[in-house]
Amino acid sequence: MDCILCGVRDKDPLVPNLTIHESELSIVSVNLFPYNPGHIIIFPKRHIIAYEELTKEEAEDIHLLTQKTLSILKQKWAVQGFNLGYNLGKNSGGSIPHIHQHIVPRFPNEAGFLDVFANTRVVIYEPFGMQEQLKQFWKEF
């Protein structure tokens, strides 16, 4: 497969699909290998690699979905801190050639920002169970 996120978008049966919500332009999904409970990625449906390729409409859509995701996680899981970010370029630690924003909830007594985005640890959390819970939160919100 050329792009796993395009496989998610196209609902390819060979690709694990952890979609929580879709808008006309973007997809909100649980990260397949979450660093923390509630680790979400938001990406445009259109296959692009560079941040500069985002249209104004795509950027605004991702922004609005980010705001809603943060609100849901704050309300439903009492999350009080987040890391938001993109891994841009091959030296950034990104492993998927399709732009996507990470939302990583942060909890007390954890490692810091660099530990998460330098890919130095993985927290075991069953992503499909998390997906079902978060889909329900989206419906309720």
Automatic annotation (TrEMBL):
CDD domains: FHIT (cd01275)
UniProt: substrate binding residues: N31, H102
Keywords annotated in UniProt: Hydrolase, Nucleotide-binding
Domain HIT intervals: 4-113
Pfam families: HIT (PF01230)
Positions of short motif Histidine triad motif: 98-102
Highest taxon listed in the record's lineage: Bacteria
Enzyme active site: H100 (tele-amp-histidine intermediate)
InterPro entries to which the protein is assigned, alphabetical: AP-4-A_phosphorylase, FHIT, HIT-like, HIT-like_sf
Recorded GO MF terms: hydrolase activity; nucleotide binding
Record-linked PANTHER family: AP-4-A PHOSPHORYLASE (PTHR42997:SF1), HIT FAMILY HYDROLASE (PTHR42997)
The protein's name in its UniProt record: HIT family hydrolase
Organism: Leptospira ryugenii
